Amino acid sequence: MIVRMVSLLFGLCLFGLGIVLTVKSNMGTGPWDAFHLGLINYLPLTLGQVSQLTGVIVIALSALMGIHPGWGTIANMYFIGVFIDLFMASPWISAPLFWPGQLAMLLGGVLVIGWGSYFYLTAALGAGPRDSFMVGAIHKTGWPVWKVRTILETSVAAAGYLLGGPIGIGTLIVALTLGPSIQLAFTVMGKRVQDIRHDSLMSKRQSSERV
């Protein structure tokens, strides 16, 4: 359990860092962050706090769909928001001035998010609020993770645009590469997201359902 908790928190830290890298690339944020920053136009909250609020809502909706959250789901909702605000305030992460540096920061952020997803998902303590939808869709459709993730990301990007979020070429890049980045991490480590059995708050281990 200690190893799983360390893997979970390390993954969430990487995820928060990756998000901040994509935001500070100034090429247009990732789909979920475009949505979150769009909400900030109407709410007096930080990016991390809006991420937490969205996570609570998604967890509630997932529960209604029969997707039971785990401790990792709750930790994802809370700690990613904390890490986002910490990294956003860090003086060590500054926005590049020219597009090659911006593109490198954006792609680096996508790669970091992919590995962050791997570490917290393989902790098997519950998929994150947003990834609960992804994992559930994979289970129901049998589609690969990259395909399901890409569809979800592009849909959220459209909502972010309508809310006035910062949509740019980087948004399209993230939407098209985040799924493959997660797939790459799982492939390198020789695992499949479909084979992970998550603990939930309803039972010690979901032994009857592979997610």
Automatic annotation (TrEMBL):
Keywords: Membrane, Transmembrane, Transmembrane helix
Transmembrane annotation, as ranges: 46-65, 77-99, 105-125
Highest rank taxon of the organism: Bacteria
Pfam families linked to this entry: DUF6198
Coiled coil segments of this chain: none
PANTHER family given in the database record: INTEGRAL MEMBRANE PROTEIN (PTHR40078:SF1), INTEGRAL MEMBRANE PROTEIN-RELATED (PTHR40078)
UniProt protein name: Membrane protein
Biological source species: Anaeroselena agilis
